[in-house]
Amino acid sequence: MKNKLKKFGFAAIIAVIGLITLLMTGCPPEDDDNGGGGDGTITSPTGIVLVSISDGTFTMGSPTTEPNRYSDEAQHSVTLSSFKMSKYQVTQEQYQAVMGTNPSYFNGSTGKEPAAGETQGKRPVEEVSWYDALVFCNKLSMKEGLSPAYSISGKTNPTDWGTVPTSSDATWNAVIIVAGSTGYRLPTEAQWEYACRAGTTTAYNTGDTISDNTGWYTSNSDSKTHEVGLKTANAWGLYDMHGNVWEWCWDWYGSYSSEAQTNPMGASSGSSRVERGGNAGVSVGYLRSAYRGYSNPYSMGNGLGFRIVRP
C-alpha cells in the first residue's frame, strides 16, 4: 500500500523582528523570492514566512505517458482562489514553540544528528499525525490573533478537544473549517499540487527529471532529514516541495472527479488523509508533483511532516 511510505525504510527500522525571527522560527531568513504571480512574501508575527500564491487554473494529475504514474492521477482542470503558503516545511523549532514538545525521530540525539553545517532546530518536524497538525494550526492561529480555522464539536480551542487520538476517531474526523476564518490550516491537495508545480506541467517542478540540487530523496539524503531551505526553491519561491518529508494535506483520499473543479476540498469521507511530496527515504518517482500518498489520520512517521496555508 502507498501509505507505508510515510516512514523512512532505513530509520523506521533503525533589527528586533529579524532577531525574533531568527530565535523563534526554525526557518532560514526571508529572501526576495516571489510567489505565484509575483505577489512576494510576508512574515507573520511569530516569524512564519508565507508566500502569496495568486489565483489561477491548472491541470491537476498526470498524463498517462508519465513515468512512474499511478492510475489515481487522472488529469482534470482545477481553479483555485489565492492563498498564502509557508515557504518552508514546519520546522522542529517552530513546532516546539507552539506545542511545547518536539516529537521528531531525527531529534539530534546519537545517531540522529543533523548533517555537518546544518542546524538541528531547522530540520522539519516529523512523527506528527494529521490530528496533531490540526492542533498546531489552531494554536498558532490563536497565538497570532487570527480566528482558528478548525472546529471540533463546535469548539475551536484545541484545549477543549481533549487528548489527540492515537486511532481513528469519529469526532475528530468530523472536524470542519470555520467559514470566514483567517487562521492557519493544512493545504488542500489541489492547493499543494498547484503550489508545487508553480506553473509547470512536467513530472517535477524542475522538468521531466529531478537532480540532487532540487530535492532530498534516498540517493542523496544520507538516510536523514535535512535543514529546510537548502535545496533550490521552485519558481514561486517554495522550498522542499520535492522530498525531505511527506506533507499532510486536508483532503480525505479518494478518486478525482473527471469534471472541472473550483476550490475542491477532496472526498467527503474516507479512512485516510492525503500526504504529498515524498521524503528523504524514497526514490524519485514518489517525489513527482502528481504523486498521491495517503495515511490514516492518526499515523505518524519519521518521514511525515507538514506545511501550512492561510487565506
Task: Please give a structural write-up.
With 311 residues, the protein is of the alpha+beta class. Helix content is 16%, strand content 15%. The protein is built from six helices and 13 strands. The strands form four sheets. A four-stranded antiparallel beta sheet has the order 1-2-5-13, with no helix packed on it. The chain starts with 8 loop residues before the first helix and ends with a strand.
Structure described in brief:
The protein is of the alpha+beta class. It has helices at 9-13, 16-24, 92-99, 130-143, 170-173, 189-197, and strands at residues 41-43, 49-53, 56-60, 76-80, 83-86, 150-151, 176-177, 246-252, 261-262, 273-276, 293-295, 304-305, 309-310. The radius of gyration is 18 Å and the shape is globular.
Question: Strands, helices and their partners?
Answer:
Layout: H1 9-13, H2 16-24, E1 41-43, E2 49-53, E3 56-60, E4 76-80, E5 83-86, H3 92-99, H4 130-143, E6 150-151, H5 170-173, E7 176-177, H6 189-197, E8 246-252, E9 261-262, E10 273-276, E11 293-295, E12 304-305, E13 309-310
Parallel strand pairs: 4-9, 8-12
Antiparallel strand pairs: 1-2, 2-5, 3-4, 5-13, 6-7, 8-10, 10-11
What are the key terms here?
311 residues; alpha+beta; paralog of FGE (formylglycine-generating enzyme); four-stranded antiparallel beta sheet; four-stranded mixed beta sheet; 16% helix
